[in-house]
Amino acid sequence: MATIFSKIIAGEIPCFKVAEDDRFFAFLDINPLVKGHTLVVPRQEVDYIFDLSDKDLAAMQVFAKMVAAAIKKAFPCKKVGEAVIGLEVPHAHIHLIPIQKESDMLFSNPKLKFSDEEFRAIAEAIHQNWLNAL
Ligand code: AMP
Questions:
Q1: Which residues, including other chains, have CB under 8 Å from residue 110's CB and lie 6 or more apart?
Q2: Any idea what the CATH number is for the domain that residue 60 is in?
């Protein structure tokens, strides 16, 4: 059975897309820790990120690096932090989180709520910076 992220990539479930190429896909986390919290996923359906081949894992990091640059331009921050958990959705993903301080990365923090319109504007701001860098 396809994972929820595969359904998002296939367009069967809506998302706020920020970037894509032929192997990877990036969209906003629907329960963001901070504004701009983004998930990077491989189109390939693999649960555990370290089950990806060395080549695919490296390519995913390079894709995440480009998305992180677009996030940082759209939402100036000290750094874009990266986290991998993967206990909830069995489809490998990297969390990219624009941070001002260490505690912005705490997954136990309360999640932010945005309207669809706000999510769309956040995704669009990152997407424009992604396009500008291509
Ligand atoms: P984890 O597997 O623990 O890394 O957590 C999965 C993450 O995916 C959580 O931060 C969720 O908020 C996020 N998530 C789950 N379903 C969706 C969805 N349909 N759209 C966007 N983000 C999602």
A1: none
A2: 3.30.428.10
